[in-house]
Amino acid sequence: MDTFFQQLINGLTIGSIYALVALGYTMVYGVMRLINFAHGDMVAASAFVGLTIYTQVMGQSATLFSVIMIFLLAAVSMACVGVILERVAYRPLREAPRLSAVVSALGASLVIQNGIMLLWGPQMRIFPELVPQVYWEIGGVVVSLIQVIILILSLVLMVALYFFVEKTRMGAAIRASSIDQDAARLMGINVNTIIATIFIIGSSLGAIGGLFIGLYYRGITFNMGWQYGLFAFVAAILGGIGNIPGAMLGGMLLGLFNAFIAGYVSSTWSDAFTFILLIIILIVRPTGILGERVAEKV
Amino acid sequence: MSNQPLFEIKDLEVSYGSIAAIKGISMEVHKGEIVTILGANGAGKTTCMRTISQLLKAKSGSIRFKNAELTGLPAHKIVGLGISHSPEGRRVFGILTVEENLLLGAYSCKSVDRKVLEWVYDLFPRLKERRKQLSGTLSGGEQQMLAIGRALMSKPEMLLLDEPSLGIAPILVKAIFKQIRAIADNGVTVLLVEQNAKAALKLADRGYVLEVGKIATSGTSEELLSSEKVQEAYLGKKH
Ligand SMILES: Nc1ncnc2c1ncn2[C@@H]1O[C@H](COP(=O)(O)OP(=O)(O)OP(=O)(O)O)[C@@H](O)[C@H]1O
Ligand SMILES: [Mg+2]
Questions:
Q1: Domain boundaries, given as residue ranges, for chain A
Q2: Does the pLDDT of residue A281 top 90, yes or no?
Q3: How high is the ipTM of this complex?
Q4: Where do runs of H (alpha helix) occur along chain A?
Q5: Is the Cβ atom of B2 under 6 angstroms away from ligand 1?
C-alpha cells in the first residue's frame, strides 16, 4: 500500500509538469493545427534561463522574493521567445502546405537546442536549490515541499487557465478561432492577436514546467527538451490534441502511469509501456480521451 | 435615389490563383434598401460577399462603405465599420453555446448591448429557449437563425446575408425571410445573396443577377420578376 501512495504522489507531481507542458502543444495545435516541436526545447531553455537569473541577477539568493522573480522573469523571457518564434518560423508559412510548417518546427527545435548548448555548454548543469529540502513522512509515504509546491502551483495555473478560456471574452475568442478562423474574423477577432496570446500563455506555462523540472530533478541538460517535450506531446494526444482539459487530464494520467510502472514493474520499462498505452488508447479512441466533444455540423 | 449610396462596388475583379471568379462588377446599395444578388451555383455570389468582408482580397476595383475604402483593410476591421456578414453555410461556432455565439457577435463593440440581445431573442425566440445549448447540436434552420442573430449583435448598418435559405425547409425559410423584413424595417440595410430567386425578389427592393462573374441584368424587383430572362433561368417558368 505504501508503494501505491508513494507512486501516486510521484505520479501526480510529474503529471502536473507534463500537463503544464502539454497545454502549450495543445493550445497551439487548437488554433493553428500545427505541432510546435520547439516547445519542448523552450521548456529546457527556461530551466537554463532560470539558472542564469539565479546566479547573475539574484546573486544566488533563494529568498521567496527572488524565487518569485526567477519564475516571473523566466516566464516572460520564454513568452517573448514564443512570440518571436511564431512570427519568424510559423506565420510566414501559415498558408503553406502543412509539411513545410512541420519542417520549420523541427528546425526551430534544433536552433533552440543548439542555442542552449552554445550558451550554457553541453554538459549537465545543476539547477539551484530554490526550495529548501523539507520532507514529511506520513505513514511511510514521503512527500517533499517541492512536490507540494509543484502540485499546488500547477493546479492553480490550470484552474486559472480553464476559467480564462471558458469564462472570458478573450477565451471565447480563442475557442472561436480554434473552430473557424474566417468566421472569427467576421466577428472582429484579430486572429493574429489570438495566436500571439496562445504562444504567450503556452510558452509561459512551459517555462514554469521547465523550472519545475529543474527543481524536481536538479540535473538539466541542453537536450532534455526532447524527452520531456515528447512525453508532454504524448499527454496532449492522450487527452485529445487541441482540447485544453484533455491536456491536463492526459498529463496527469501519463504521470501516474509512468510512476506506477516504475513502482510496480520496472523503471527501465516505463517509457516503452507508456507508448504501448498510447497506442492502445488511440486504437480505442482515435481522437484521444476528450477529443471532439461534439460532432460539428458543416 | 440620387443621393450618395451607402455602399458601392466599382469594377471589382477577384481571382482564385489564375482563375477569375468576379470579372469586373459594379453595384450600389442605398441606405434602408434590401438588395439581392441572384445567380446560379458558381456565379460568384459568395466570392463577392467574402471580398466585401476582406476575407478575400480583390485583384482590382474598389469597395466603398460610407465613403471609406474597404479593400486592403484586414478582415477583422470590417465589422467595426458597420458591415456584418452572416456567411454561407452558417459557420456557427459549434462547441460554443448559442449565447456564447451571440456574445461573440458583439466582440467588436466595447460592451454587449443587452437590448440588442433581447431584440435578437424576440426575432428568434427559438434561440432564447436554447441559449445554453451547444450550437453544433442545433438544427440547420436554428443554426441559420443563430448566424443571422450573431451578425446583428454588432449593431450593423448593413447586413450581408449569404444564402440564408440554404438547406432549410420551406416553412422555416418563410419565417426567416419574414424576420429579415423585420430587421430591415428596424433600419438595417440588407445585401442578400440567394438562389431562391422568387422569395428573394418578393423581399428585396432591387436585385442584381450574376452570371459567371459578371452582372447579367439588374433592376427593381418588379422588373426582374417580370423579365423573361430571369423567369426562365431562375423562376423555373417556361415561355
Ligand atoms: N477557394 C476557391 N478556390 C478556387 N476556386 C474557387 C474557390 N472558391 C470558389 N471558387 C470558384 O469561384 C467561382 C465562384 O464561386 P462562389 O462560391 O463565389 O459561387 P456562388 O455563386 O456562391 O455559388 P453557390 O450558389 O453554389 O454558393 C466558382 O467557379 C468556384 O468554383
Ligand atoms: Mg455561395
A1: 2-284
A2: no
A3: 0.95
A4: 2-32, 39-52, 64-85, 98-120, 145-167, 169-179, 181-186, 191-217, 224-239, 244-260, 270-284
A5: no
Over residues B8-35, mean pLDDT? 97
Mean pLDDT of all residues in A262-291: 86
The Cα B239–Cα B237 span in angstroms is 7
Contacts of A295 in chain B (CB under 8 A): 136
Output DSSP code: residue A93: G
| The model scores a pTM over 0.90 | yes
Name every chain A residue with its beta carbon within 8 A of the beta carbon of B89: 298
CATH class in words for B7-234: alpha beta
Q: pLDDT tens for residues B139-181?
A: 999 999 999 999 999 999 999 999 999 989 888 999 999 999 9
Q: Cα–Cα distance between B145 and B148 in angstroms, integer?
A: 5
**pLDDT for the residue A98:** 87
Question: Closest by alpha carbon to B131, among B117, B115, B141?
Answer: B117
Cβ of A297 within 8 Å of Cβ of B107? The answer is: no
For chains A and B, CB pairs below 8 A equal 82
Grid cell digits, residue B171: 416553412
Contact B67, B124 (CB under 8 A): no
Q: Fold for domain A2-284?
A: ABC transporter involved in vitamin B12 uptake, BtuC (1.10.3470)
The structural domains of chain B, with segments of one domain joined by +, span: 7-234
Confidence of residue A61 (pLDDT cuts 50, 70, 90): confident
CB of B195 closer than 6 A to ligand 1? yes
Listed range (A262-271, B7-16, B17-26) with the worst mean pLDDT: A262-271
Give SS3 for B69: strand
Instruction: Tell whether A295 is within 8 A of chain B (Cβ).
Output: yes
Rounded to the nearest angstrom, the minimum Cα separation between A36 and chain B is: 24
Query: How close, in Å, is residue A27 to chain B by CA atoms?
Result: 15
| Secondary structure, 3-state, A245-283 | HHHHHHHHHHHHHHHHHHHHHCHHHHHHHHHHHHHHHHH
